Amino acid sequence: MRTHRTPRRVTTLALGATLLALVTAAPAGADDAGLPTVTPTSETLPLYDDEAGGNSDADDPAIWRNAADPDRSLVIATAKEGGLRVYDLGARLVQSLPAPRPPAEDDAPGRYNNVDLVTGLPTSTGRVDVAVVSDRGNDRLRIYRIDPARPGAPLTDITDPAAAPVFSADQAEINDQRTAYGLATWQDKATGRTYALVSQRERTRVALVELTPAAGGTVGYRKVRTLDLPSSFRLPNGTTWSPCAEPGELPQVEGMVVDPATGTLYAGQEDIGIWRVRADLTTKPVLVDKVREFGVPGVYDEATEECTAGADPGYGGEHLSADVEGLTLFQESDGDGYLIASSQGDDTFALYDREVSEANEYEGGFRVVAASATLDGSQECDGAAVLNAPLGSRYPNGLLVVQDGHETPEVPDGEGGTRTATGFKFVDLGDVVDAADM
Question: Please, what is the end-to-end C-alpha distance for the chain in angstroms?
């Protein structure tokens, strides 16, 4: 979720605007804060969140590696009401799949929010690689088989038609849109079972959902248990604090990732910070890091739909500016690696030690800046995905894909303004490793 779409998070807007002006023209190397910078090698065509653009809005990517032919690997990405997009490693569109139509005219339309992958998922017709998507509009998961033998249309929907809503009891609740939002997949090595961790929009709840084989090679799911993260916090000065929000909203989670080696879930609560908890949701969550705005009081103005921030008491973190968004895991074969978090409020990416024994210590960060006047960097980043594996001749050192919430150059809307444009940037992972000294 981007700050310019959610007025309740205004504490970082002035800072974000200033930084955006600085980094748009920043050369690769280091920014004014001393963070290393990298530039993208390519970008997808912009998606436009208007009627002419099919209400398409880039959000979250995932990288699927074609083990038989790494050059033909794919990037699968969500476009909200625009459905799902599939790109090749050159950032060229391979396939576009629409989100489901609403059940009735006044119902919420399908809206694809987050995506993650599962390799070798058991089905009634054999094991397949799949993309799992959270459909916020319908409060459901959708599962797509990935078939490299169909290069022009590699994804096929294999969701069980009987799949039920994840959080809602009926269509009226679905239309309220407190529905499936963030998503991460997990394969439990101990049991062989496959799960999705799904967060609920405008709530602190995270659900553990098991993916199950159904008839005819389709895939369904069942909810196993839920965990509610805190919505208010006791501060050192004795007061209780909750982030400013519209009445009735709680601080939601979106960005999530599971470390497969340890079965650890990392969940980004947008206005709070990053939590660590067992992926089966059976342990007490630990707050790994807080956003800078943690503890800052705010008053919501219904007329302007904005929050006015009070004085900062100084209880926040040092590395993240709200919102905490895309989380992705840079894995090394020896167990080392990094948790990468999108710090949306200041257009940076933070690196944390992957090892729980090191308390996920902060290890630095970087920024993705413009490569040229026509190939910009990443601002207001929602989702991110990294794959530390050879991807053919184009990306032999692996790939980082990040969402860009503010595509440039801007395109006029014909009414004196500009069209809201988003997209995805492809970054050579080798460049990131060298720049950030990973």
Answer: 28
Compute the distance between CA of residue 249 and CA of residue 376 in angstroms, rounded to an integer: 34
**Which 3 state secondary structure label does DSSP give 332?**
coil
pLDDT (0 to 100) of residue 28:
56
- Residue 52 contacts residue 411 (beta carbons within 8 Å): no
What is the DSSP code string of 193-243? Answer: -EEEEEEETTS-EEEEEEEEE-GGG-EEEEEEEEEEPPS-EE-TTS-EE--
Q: What is the pLDDT of residues 147-182, one digit of tens each?
A: 999 999 999 999 999 999 999 999 999 999 999 999
Tell me the residue ranges of DSSP E strands in 279-398. 286-290, 298-301, 306-309, 324-331, 337-343, 348-353, 362-368, 384-387
Residue 100: closest CA among 64, 139, 63: 139
Is-cis flag, bond preceding 323, omega within 30? yes
- Asked whether 116 and 123 are in contact (CB, 8 A), the reply is no
Q: What residues contact 217, with CB distance under 8 A and at least 6 apart? A: 123, 124, 125, 126, 128, 145, 158
| Closest by CA position to 430, among listed 392, 385, 400 | 400
Instruction: Give the count of beta carbons closer than 10 Å to the beta carbon of residue 33.
Output: 12
Task: Give the residue carrying structure tokens 């098991």.
Answer: 210
CA separation for the pair 393, 371 (Å, rounded): 21
Task: Burial-class residue 316 by CB neighbours within 10 Å (0-12, 13-18, 19+).
Answer: buried
Strand partners, 296: none
Q: What CA–CA distances, in Å, run from 122 to 134, 252, 330?
A: 20, 31, 26
- Per the CB < 8 A criterion, the answer to whether 274 and 259 are in contact is no
pLDDT in tens, 334-363: 889 999 999 999 999 999 999 999 999 999
